[in-house]
Each structure stands twice: as C-alpha cells, then as structure tokens.
Amino acid sequence: MQRLFIFLLFVGVSINAYANDEGFERKPGVAGNITSVGSDTLANLMTLWSQEFKTLYPDVTFQIQASGSSTAPPALTEGTATIGPMSRDLKPSERRAFIQAHGYPPTVIKVAIDAIAIFVERSNPLPGLTLKQVDSIFSATRYCGGEERITRWSQLGIGYYGQTAPIRLFSRNSVSGTYGLFKIMALCDGDFTKSVNEQPGSASVVLSVASSKGGMGYAAYGYRTAGVRALPLGNTANTLIPLTSETVQNESYPFSRFLYLVVNKAPGEPLPKLEREFLRYVLSARGQQQVERDGYFPIRQDMLKLQLRLVGEKTTML
After folding, report:
1. Which domains can be identified in the chain, with CATH numbers?
2. How confident is the model over 110-121, as a mean pLDDT?
3. Could you tell me which residues belong to the region Disordered (predicted)?
C-alpha cells in the first residue's frame, strides 16, 4: 500500500513538473467533454493535443470528427461542437449565420502555420513550378494567367514518364478548407479541371501521388511521406521558393496559411474553464511542440500573445 502511495505521488509530481517545465501550469477543477468538428488537416494535431491534455487532465474526454473545415461553422452555430478546427478562415456567410444565431461573431484562434504543398512522387525530376504553371495544370479557367492548358509531363520538359504521359491530378474534396483555399490562392478562384481526382483527405492525396505513375496533387504539408516531394514554387522559374520552416513562417512561400480553432465566446464573458484551459495548452510551449511534431510550424511569439488575449488569458505569455 505504501509503495502504491509513493508511486501515485511520484506520478502526480512528475505530471506537474512536466507541465511546468514546458511552460504550462495545471489548474484544478478541469473536467468534462470537448467535441471537435471540422478540418481533416487538423485531425492528427487534434489527436496529439487531446492525448497529451488528457495526461494532464484525466477527467477530460474528447470526441473528434474530422469531416472538413466547412462542417465546423454550422456545428458551432448549432451548438453540436465546442471547438471547430479549420484550415481556412471563416467565410462571410458562415460568420453571418453564427451572428444571426448568437448575436455576436465566433472567436477565431490561430494555432499553427501550415503550407499547402504540391506533391510529386519522390523520383520525379521536376525542379518546381511557376504559379502560372500551377494554374495551367489544375484550373479549367486559368484566371491566374496560365497561357495554355498543361495536361502532359512533356509540356513541363519532363520526359521521365514518356512524351505522351499524362499528369494524373489529385485534389481534396469540396468540403475541405484546403480545397477552398487552394482554389482561391492557386486558381484565383477559378474552376478546377474535370480531370482532377478528388480525395476525402490529405493523407489520401499523398498516398495517391506516391503510388501513381506521373501523379501530382496538393495537400497539407504535414501529411508528407517519404514517397513524395514538395515542389518549390515561384513567380518565375528563376525565383522558385522551396517549402521550408523559414519560408513558411515569413510567408514568402506562396501557399502559406494559418490553421485555426474556432469557439463560441460571448463578448465580455470568459470561456468555460475546460475550453479555456485546452486553448491555453494549445498555445503553450508544449502545445506548440506538438505542432512541430505533426509536421506543421508553430505560431510566432508576438502572434501567440495576441491569441492568448483572444482566449481571455490575462498573463502576457505562458
């Protein structure tokens, strides 16, 4: 019995020390259920966060539904979710619907930085793509200035697959925030070509590219595997920008983006303790380490302070 007591005491001290060492102080009375509905891009990260948060707060349970960013706003509006992960910002129509239901806008918290990568299989020798080439490959409308439709690898100077080999295109589906943002950023809000094969998740896109001869697809960079390579992108062939931590965080890589957690917070009122503590953890040093672990990029320190104020945290920094 004494050994059990000493063991439990050791575990309790270890968890508290672990939290404090990483800049996150546990608070008493945190329990309940968090329901998350939204982005597939954030699915793995939400799982990592929830698992570690449960280590700190064993009386908390999570329900995570990763059905696409477009499912987050209605779930929050209707009260069927407490947190809405999104890989894009809210649309005006989504914001209006929430305001009509609650009388105030939702609170949008930036929690990580991501990049939409254009992947090819690892052995593909293509050095990169200009933004006009991206438009010519993926778009039927070419609003970004693509001069001609590009459908074959030979049009990009690649004979690796043969002179008539087609580019096999893979895309996220239309409920995805990645789909919507790529449509705006890469196609100038144009239409996708009908030859694009839509996939239910970023992992499916990456797997399809890696296993398809002559495949190309866009997906969240955090889902990369050893079988694919992210292409450098730029305005010209001489100014291609590789996808690195530095180019994403300084936003020089063309398709950089924030990842968000959206919550229902009434003006002048604090968030419920459970939601506040979870967001405080996500924005802590430990939570941001999980961002890096999942292949994404942490929020800059100056921006973290602004997000903490939105959460209602009075301290200047955790």
Report:
1. 2-112+258-311 (3.40.190.10), 115-256 (3.40.190.10)
2. 96
3. 67-88
Q: Which amino acid is at 15?
A: I
- Residues 6+ away with beta carbon under 8 Å from 232: 127, 128, 129, 240, 241, 242, 243
**Helices and strands (H and E) in the chain: how many:** 11, 11
Query: How long, in residues, is the chain?
Result: 318
Q: Which residue has the tokens 């209006």?
A: 96
Residue 296 DSSP SS3: coil
C-alpha torsion 289→271→31→55, nearest 10: 0
Q: How far apart are CA 294 and CA 126, in angstroms?
A: 27
> Which whole number is the average pLDDT over 42-51?
96
Q: Hey, is 260 helix, strand or coil? A: strand
Average pLDDT, the chain: 90
Q: Look at residue 6 and tell me whether its pLDDT is greater than 70.
A: no
The region that residue 31 occupies, defined by phi over 0 for left and psi between -120 and 50 for alpha, beta otherwise, is beta
214 phi and psi angles, rounded to 5 deg: 80, 30
**Single pTM value for the model:** 0.81
Alpha-carbon span 266 to 103, nearest angstrom: 9
Give pLDDT, residue 129.
Answer: 98
Q: How many CB atoms lie within 10 A of CB 205?
A: 30
CA distances from residue 269 to 73, 98, 108, 266, 272 in whole angstroms, order as listed: 21, 17, 16, 6, 9
Give tens-digit pLDDT for 184-220: 999 999 999 999 999 999 999 999 999 999 999 999 9
Rg (CA), the chain: 22
Tell me how far CA of residue 54 lies from CA of 20, 41, 228, in angstroms. 16, 21, 34
| Inter-axis angle of helices 285-293 and 273-282, nearest 10 | 60
Cα gap 101→97, rounded to integer Å: 6
Distances in Å between the Cα of 195 and the Cα atoms of 168, 186, 192, 198, 213 are: 8, 17, 8, 9, 15
- Averaged pLDDT for residues 116-123: 97
